[in-house]
Design goal:
With about 375 residues, the chain is of the alpha+beta class. It folds into 2 domains: about 200 residues; about 160 residues, Alpha-Beta Plaits (2-Layer Sandwich). It has 12 helices and 8 strands. A 6-stranded mixed beta sheet has the order 2-3-1-6-7-8, with helices on both faces. A two-stranded antiparallel sheet has the order 4-5. Helix 12 links the parallel strand 6 and strand 7.
Length: about 375
């Protein structure tokens, strides 16, 4: 996964870095053609510039299509291949056109052509450094036609120019390898740091034993859910549930048995609650649940379903089997309820009423009649 993310980052960097290279290649060709107007082969200028403009137009169309595509569609599999085609087209056109434009009998024309070719090759390092082999291919296509021809000439000056260019090419190969390697390492490091940050952030917001939201994460998400339901007029209910006689379980069977009970209860919570419901461990054996889009009647039904699901739990511990029950308090956020703290306080009061009345039951709290409680078992 990290390797694919790094490739995607490389692709994005490539498109950002090489945008201006399209204009640079056409601009360099125009300048070289102007300097060669009295030295080189005039008949080559017009076809060469037309081909470069065509290659540049194709490249710009590629950039436009990439920028207009959805982020999830900007994948290496979709764009790398077509980018390579445009690279070979524009670099090959530049290198062959410059070679054909150069005069075979005028040393000044050869020097000017080679100077521009070396400049174009140098710019390829910065434009395509996101990929190790792209600068090398671009440099080769731009420099090789002229360099190989000069190397084959009998004149000392031409061979000296060719050897100088080959030495520059060797430098380009080394610089490209180091720069591309450094960029790849930086991109990989960034992705690994992002993953580590997510893991650390998730660990700071998740209860280690149960995997549920911890108190801090639950309250943050609860506030967001409360604000949403108030804005759109959606009903909201809270459940607070507590495992009955949990301290006795720990004292009698040990904390390892208590941990098993907690995990078993959480497993029933996860399978019984809906995906959109918010659930968290508020501390010890107490859990909180927020039900958006749920009125009191539906919330009580869900709470009762939870109570029955937990009541069916059998936790084997040593030579005995533990049976678990919960007490649940239910509250609904009416217009008088100003925040999640108030809503949870009402659910908490209902839960303690359930415990006072014998445990293993559901109690609902009605804010419009603070003293009224409904009992369900």
């Amino acid at each position: 996964a990290v390797a694919m993310q790094v490739r995607t980052d490389q692709l994005q960097l490539l498109f950002r870095q090489s945008f201006l290279a399209t204009f640079g290649s056409v601009g360099g060709a125009l300048a070289l053609s102007w300097l060669q107007r009295d030295l080189g082969n005039h008949s080559v200028i017009a076809p060469w510039l037309i081909m470069l403009c065509l290659a540049g137009t194709i490249r710009l169309a590629l950039f436009w299509a990439y920028s207009r595509s959805a982020p999830e569609q900007r994948t290496p599999a979709r764009w790398e291949g077509v980018y390579w085609v445009t690279l070979v087209f524009i670099a090959g056109t530049w290198g062959i056109g410059a070679f054909l434009l150069m005069s075979s009998s005028n040393l000044l024309s050869q020097v000017i052509t080679l100077f521009f070719a070396v400049g174009m090759a140098g710019s390829a390092i910065s434009a395509y450094s996101a990929y190790r082999y792209m600068p090398l291919i671009a440099v080769g296509l731009v420099l090789l036609p002229t360099t190989l021809w000069l190397l084959a000439q009998p004149g000392t000056e031409q061979r000296l120019l060719a050897f100088t260019t080959l030495a520059f090419s060797a430098f380009v190969v080394r610089a490209t390898r180091e720069l591309s390697g450094a960029l790849h390492s930086l991109l990989r490091l960034r992705r690994e740091l992002e993953i580590e940050h997510r893991i650390a952030s998730n660990a700071a917001r998740t209860d280690e034993l149960t995997g549920l939201n911890n108190l801090r994460a639950f309250k943050e998400q609860a506030d967001t859910m409360f604000a949403y339901t108030r804005r759109y007029g959606v009903p909201l209910c809270a459940l607070l549930l507590d495992i009955d006689h949990f301290k006795q379980i720990n004292d009698t069977h040990g904390h390892a048995a208590g941990d098993k009970v907690l995990q078993a209860v959480v497993q029933r919570l996860k399978t019984t609650l809906r995906e959109a419901d918010l659930c968290g461990r508020l501390g010890g054996e107490e859990f909180g649940v927020l039900l958006a889009g749920t009125d009191m009647h539906e919330a009580v039904q869900i709470a009762e379903k939870l109570r029955l699901a937990v009541q069916a739990i059998e936790v084997p511990v040593n030579d005995t089997t533990l049976h678990v029950t919960i007490s649940v308090g239910v509250a609904e956020a009416d217009l008088a309820c100003t925040d999640t703290a108030t809503l949870l306080a009402q659910a908490d009061a209902a839960m303690y009423q359930a415990k006072s009345n014998g445990r293993n039951r559901v109690h609902s709290s009605f804010a419009q009649a603070p003293g009224a409680m409904a009992c369900h078992q």
